[in-house]
Amino acid sequence: MAHILIVEDDRDINDLIARNLKLVSHTYRQVFDGITAAATAEKEDFDLVLLDVMLPGLDGFEVIQKISATPTIFITAKDGLSDRLTGLSLGADDYIVKPFEMLELLARIEAVLRRTKKNNAAFNLDSVTVDMTTRTVKVKGREIDLSPKEFDLLEVLIRNQNIALSREKLLELAWGYDYFGETRTVDNHIQKLRSKLGWEERIKTVYKLGYRLEVKR
Amino acid sequence: MRLRLYLATYLLFIVILFSSLGIVSTFMTNTQINMYTDKCIREFHSISSALFFDLHALVGQDRFFAQEIAILVDGYISYFYQHGIIIEVTEYGHTAYAGAVVSYITLETGQYIHISGALPAPLEIFRLYYFYNITAYMEDMSRIQNILLMVCIIFSVITAFALYIIVARLFKPLGLISKATRNIASGHYNERIHVKGSGELTQVAEDFNQMAEQIQDQIYHLERVAAEKQQFIDNFAHEIRTPLTSIFGNAEYMQRALLDEGETIELTQLIMNNSTHMKQIANSLLQLATLRDYTPVVEEIPIRRLFDDVGKTMYDSLLEKKVTLKCKIGTDSLWGQEDLIRSLLLNLCYNAVKACEKGGIIELSARENWDYIILSVKDNGHGIAPENLHKLTEPFFRVDKARSREAGGIGLGLTLCKQIADVHGAKLIVESALGVGTMVSVTFTTP
């Protein structure tokens, strides 16, 4: 999917982010200080940079000025308004305050990638091909009909592959915050997707949690 | 206050000035009038006796020569008239009151001293009336009085201004003090008063300055303490946020992702490590809090045993990094609470081991200097930059953040050491040079 540079000096957090990115099949590179970050961004082409503000060497605000061409999300431990404003004024696309939930980080990454059109590669699994740009789905080369909501749900599952999502979360992500539907709507759509795509074994029901699109890693 | 003082002083001045003016001018007028009256009485008597003799000569023959008398009296009248004195002589058929009567009368033509009296016997039937015009004198008098009054008024006006200036000058320090007080009240604690000279108000100003100095010191002290507290809270929030993010993130991952067995073990280990880290922070903070107003249970600690204990506890980490620990014992014992002193030395030794490269040397020493006992831990590690030296005992301060975290440090070790030194009345001093090494010495100033 996307190639992402993680700049975070705390090894545990850095690893945690990397693990989650790997889960949804992004590729990544981990660096732990500002100077290496700037150098790596110069050598390699990234779709997105996750950038901690407090870094040894160069701080996040200094790093972003060297890599301004790449979309950037700031990770900050301070929730001070001035830090956010500084970050956004320097050209950051978004910011997230520690401690954060992984689903939230992934959602923000998705949003930025969508906005910068860096995440439009086709998705292949088994005999299914999903084209995000044209919103078409082919099974064994043959195009099949999906309702717009079914496609939205499919896209959410693909973007959060290997992550179990609750019905509420799926409603929120695919239908939107303002949708007051029942969680049964989600179950119905999942059933349809399973049968239309032949994904009975791919879209797993996770006990007490929800659904998970399982893709071999 | 200032206006009231001014008005009261001025009123007093005016009252005194004008009442003395009144007294003086009344006195002057009276004196003058008395003087004239005396003169007039003398003159009256001389006229009276002259007239008596002249009349007596005429009246000697026991009959009156009315004609001659009239001529004589007219002569007198015209003579004296030329000298500004009016006299009249009347003839009563009977004897009136013999003495002279003095009175002051005001006629259309002016003011007069009037004296009337009978001529001596046997001519007592003749009465002499004497008028002396004092209008000119009285006018002179009132002119003088007017001039005096004018002068006094002019003086009053001048005094009004002069007094105003004097009072303003006298009250200037008070005004300055009041202004400075307001400034200080509104938060400008560096406000001071500059008053020249000496006097009560200058003294007040000096006292005020001293007070302001005290307040400023206190405020700065409070501000510094508050800033330190805020810094501590910020640091603390940051310190627990990192392990919390890791714990939450890994738990979230474990819940939502499909895990294999290796991953489960790896992630639970991470969660446990971070929990341990937080537990250590909590323990250290608790220890710091306990030590804040703590009085140590002091006993005599044999230095040899103390160093032995430290050496045994450090053994594994020394071996791991191939660091040598040397002990120099220059004194036998030390008074202190043994577990605290041991924990202090252990903290310092662990820091020293962390600072050392493989094969480094740590020297633990106890010696006596001027009745003071000095414990010190010296290493030949990488040293500390001078700009970081004074921050070492700040909670959560780390010279090398990444390295410390990897090594499991929580950034409270030296803070704890300083606290332990403080409750023992000891001084903790860190000397260091980059690339040469660090020496931390604890000087026990109380035996």
Could you give a quick summary of the protein structure above?
The complex is a heterodimer of chains A (217) and B (447). With 217 residues, chain A is α/β, with parallel strands linked by helices.
How would you describe this structure in keywords?
heterodimer, A: 217 residues, alpha/beta, 5-stranded parallel β-sheet, 4-stranded antiparallel β-sheet, 8 helices, B: 447 residues, alpha+beta, 11 strands, 61% helix, rod-shaped
Can you characterise this structure?
The complex is a heterodimer of chains A (217) and B (447). By secondary structure, chain A is of the alpha/beta class. Chain A has helices spanning 11-23, 34-43, 60-66, 81-89, 102-115, 148-159, 167-175, 183-197; strands at 3-7, 27-31, 48-52, 72-76, 94-97, 123-125, 128-131, 136-139, 142-144, 203-206, 210-213. Chain A is built from 8 helices and 11 strands. Chain A has a 5-stranded parallel beta sheet with strand order 2-1-3-4-5, with helices on both faces. A 4-stranded antiparallel beta sheet of chain A has the order 6-7-8-9, with no helix packed on it. In chain A, helix 3 links the parallel strand 3 (48-52) and strand 4 (72-76). The mean pLDDT of chain A is 85. In chain B, the strands form 3 sheets. Chain B has a 5-stranded mixed beta sheet. Chain B has a 4-stranded antiparallel beta sheet with strand order 1-4-3-2. Chain B has a two-stranded antiparallel ribbon with strand order 5-7. Chain A binds chain B through residues 9-13, 15-16, 19-20, 23, 32, 56, 77, 98-103, 162-165, 209, 212, 214, and chain B through 238, 241-246, 248-250, 252-253, 255-258, 270, 274, 401-402, 405-406.
